[in-house]
Amino acid sequence: MASASAAPQISNIFKALTGDDEPGEVNGDYESVPYTTLKKYDGYEMRQYPSVKWACSEVTYEAEEGSLEPAAGESNEFDIIKMMQQMMSRKNWKNKPENQMFMKLFRYISGVNKEGEEVQMTVPVLTSMKLLGNNKITKEMCFYLEKKHQANPPTPVDPDVTIEANKEFTVYVHQFGGYAMKDAVMIQQSRVFAEVLKEAGETVDTSTFYTAGYDSPMKFWNRRNEVMFLVPANNV
Question: What is the pTM of this model?
Answer without folding.
Answer: 0.80
